[in-house]
Amino acid sequence: MNFKLLAQITTLTLTCMLTTSAFAGEVEVLHWWTSGGEAKSVAVLKDLLEKEGHSWKDMAVAGGAGENAMTVLKTRAMAGNPPTAAQVKGPAIQEWAEEGLLTNLDAVAVKENWDKLVPSVVTDVMKYEGNYVAVPVNVHKINWMWCNPSIFVKAGAKIPTTWAEFETSAEKIKAAGFLPVAFGGQSWQEATVFESIVVGQAGTEFYKKALVDTDPKALNSPEMIKALETFKMIKKYTDKNAPGRDWNMATSMIINGEAAMQFMGDWAKGEFTAAGKNPGSDYVVMPVPESAGTYLFNVDSFIMFKQNDENAQAAQNAMARLILGTTFQEVFNVNKGSIPVRTGIAKASFDDTALRSMDEFAAAAANGTLLPSMAHGMAVSPAIQGAIYDVVTKFYNSDMTAGKAAAELVAATASAKE
Ligand code: GAL
User: Could you tell which of 139, 196, 298, 374 is best to mutate to test the pocket of ligand 1, judged by most ligand atoms within 8 Å of the CB?
Assistant: First the structure.
């Protein structure tokens, strides 16, 4: 026997075991991050897990804002075969926890100090009956407008800060032969634009009453009717191919110089970044008209399903730990266009929009003006959200009057609560 070789092999094996985890398991991860920027972002987590010796089974379900992913998740859970982890947000986390299917993540949370690192406005959503059942990933801001500056220059138009300016600029852009708005006609995208108009025009208190508390008086009010009318006004500046268009296709139209503006959350930045575009010169990002100073937030998170196998548990805990670790928080968020959800992350790699978003998030959290996004599952239950989506999309895609739509919002949200 060659003892020297045996000793070398043993050392090598031991080194491998020490650099990977004692238990190497698999995580099957259900998510909807399939666009260029999103896929690049989620790959960071896969790499980190694999470096620790775990394996990643990708369960990506295409479809912005996760509607399709949620359908798949329900089917899997009903069949008694849920994935290890799934991208689920906001009040829906509580609904999943009530089913008794989720892993208690308190051990990782205590060890990693999540309560200290993550603001309570976020941790409250991640806990069920005081225990962590979800891991927050990032913070996205919804009410942004992405512009192609060279179209504005060619059209002699100003980047708008009010809806009146928007109409003036959109007319000039149209006259110069460009498409003013890159619009994706899917109900979640319509709801995204709509809620950004509501908060800007009618203010934070009104937004809370209408789209968080679903107060009938706010839902059927002159402010709501005005917001609906502004939303519908945008339609004349969109193209005939808008229905069904994916959000990242709309972002490509800004990148390629086919359209001047897109109203979308800051995951759009992930597409500009992936395409090698620079903020300021290649694209300009501004708040949705009239919404400066307001912050509609959207926190992505993963719930984890109970595992019997020790290796799978180890992989799941590693995933939870890595998500809130400094490497992932920095690299993922730079790629994704979001900002870190925890403190203590170096700011050097973030651009001005992200730094501005960090300051705004902290300020809005401190003065109580941070507003959960209805369109992105942060404000109301999935049933109420679905009811609002239905009315908004019906209104936008038919000749329904704004008054009728406002009345329907009251009826639809009331029946979703029953
Ligand atoms: C949001 C999600 C973002 C982004 C976007 C488009 O709901 O929070 O991370 O993926 O949908 O799919």
Answer: 298
Asked whether residue 19 is assigned to any structural domain, the reply reads no
Residue 150 confidence (pLDDT) above 50: yes
Residues 244 and 393 placed together within one structural domain of the fold: yes
Beta strand pairing status for 284-287 and 134-136?
Answer: unpaired
Residue 272, helix vs strand vs coil: helix
Q: Which amino acid, residue 217?
A: K
- Does the pLDDT value for residue 15 go beyond 80? no
Q: What is the pTM assigned to this prediction?
A: 0.94
Neighbours of 308 (CB within 10 A): 6
In a domain, 9, yes or no: no
Range of the domain at 290: 142-297+371-417
* pLDDT, tens digit (0-9, with 9 covering 90-100), for 318-352: 999 999 999 999 999 999 999 999 999 999 999 99
377 touches 297 (CB < 8 A) = no
pLDDT tens for 40-65 read 999 999 999 999 999 999 999 999 99
Q: How many domains does the chain have?
A: 2
* Residue with token string 């804002």: 65
Query: What tokens appear for 27 in the block?
Result: 């995580």
Nearest CA, atom 1, ligand 1? 65
Q: Say if CB 123 and CB 109 are below 8 A apart.
A: no
319 CB under 6 A from ligand 1?
Answer: no
Q: Is 191 in the pocket of ligand 1 (CB under 6 A)?
A: no
CA of 200 to the centre of ligand 1 (A): 21
Q: What percent of the chain has pLDDT over 70?
A: 95
For the stretch 352-396, pLDDT in tens is: 999 999 999 999 988 878 999 999 999 999 999 999 999 999 999
Tell me, in angstroms, the distance from the centre of ligand 1 to residue 220's CA. Answer: 29
Structure tokens at 285: 């990002």
Q: Cα separation of 212 and 219, whole Å? A: 11
Distance from chain centroid for Cα 336: 10
Residues 211 and 149 grouped into a single domain: yes
CA distances from 102 to 92, 353, 400 (A): 12, 35, 43
